[in-house]
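On clarity, I found the account of how folds are encoded harder to follow than it need be. What matters is that the chain and its backbone geometry are given together, residue for residue. The format is easy to grasp once an entry is in front of the reader. For illustration, here is how one protein appears when written out as sequence plus structure tokens.
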Amino acid sequence: MTCWPARKDKDLALNLSKCLHETDVNNSVIKEKLAKIDFNAVDFIACGLAPVDCAALVHVLKNAEGISCMTLARNNIGPLACMEIVKFVKNNDKLTHLNLNSNNISDKGIEYLCKGLKQSNCKLETLNLPHNNIADKGVAFLCEALRHNNCKLKTLILADNNITATGVGYLCEALKQNNCKLKTLILTANNIADKGIEYLSETLKHSN
């Protein structure tokens, strides 16, 4: 895994992305420069990103080839930034891992992301969403995506959210479907209670 930017260069890379987004730089020029860096992972952990910053990053990164992993954890980007991120997710056929840990994207952000998960070009296999204020409504959006033929998700991390037994019930219905590809589901530190465990236990007996 070759990561961009280096830790010491994150502020510089973000400022550069914003400048490129605001000016009329030819995409072929951006593509040529990014190819020289030769990276396949993006890491902007704890950079104080706002939705407009995410728009700038997506504008630049759409010209990069071979990005398989994107980490935007601990930025508090909120749901609006997910509208920008999903543009990258649904048009990048190499991206398999997306880490949005601790971003307060909420159920609305999940709704936007799930539109990307249902696109045929989307190859996302791991979605990391702890500490995001996701409740049962957000889980319902995720389950709709999990049941979709185009969804490739194999690992879904939903730790430290606001999911109750109701949300677990939604998940269990999705897990029973033939086309659900999920293999790893993490629900640490939610409020699923005994009823949620009952739903999971029944689902584990299911042939699918």
